[in-house]
Amino acid sequence: GDERQLAVCAPAYRDRFGAPAHPSELAGHRCIGWRRAPKVAPYRWEFAENGKEFSVAVAPEITTNDMALMTKLAIAGAGITFGMEESFRPSIDRGELVAVLEGYCPRFAGFYLYYPSRRNVAPKLRALVDHLRRLG
For the chain, which residues make up each domain, given as ranges? Predict the structure, then answer.
């Protein structure tokens, strides 16, 4: 199904520092970033405006590769973070996080699993495909 990434923060952070009105204003905010490995640039946050996609290279005060830690830090008021909506949805539903910049966070086609052939599929791959179909 469709997915989207969201920028989120704690209501207390928003009340204290305000919410950015445009992604370009993220430079003036404390951000919690993600990077896949040390010595690799932090992930650039992706947005869209008037049908054109663009990314913002935030200067995170905290960087990790652990989405659960990013969520906990955001809930604690450490700043704004960015990731898949489904990762944040339980915290948003409980009121621990609020979305910011939603108008710049469009939905996109979800994830797909590609594999070479439908004939002679290895049992392990068949089990994975069957499992993912049950989830979807």
Answer: 5-104
Instruction: Please give the chain's pLDDT, 136 residues, in tens.
Output: 788 999 999 999 999 999 999 999 999 999 999 998 888 888 999 999 999 999 999 999 999 999 999 999 999 999 999 999 999 999 999 999 999 999 999 888 777 787 777 778 889 988 998 898 887 6
What class does CATH assign to 5-104? alpha beta
Separation CA 38–CA 7 (nearest Å):
23
Sort strands 62-64 and 5-9 into parallel, antiparallel or unpaired: unpaired
Q: Which of 66, 77, 78, 74 is CA-nearest to residue 6?
A: 74
Show Cβ contacts of residue 16 under 8 Å, excluding neighbours closer than 6 positions. Answer: 77
Q: Tell me the three-class secondary structure of 32-81, residue by residue.
A: EEECCCCCCCCCCEEEEECCEEEEECCCCCEEECCHHHHHHHHHCCCCEE
- Which CA distances in Å does 100 have to 1, 5, 94, 129, 133? 22, 11, 16, 35, 32
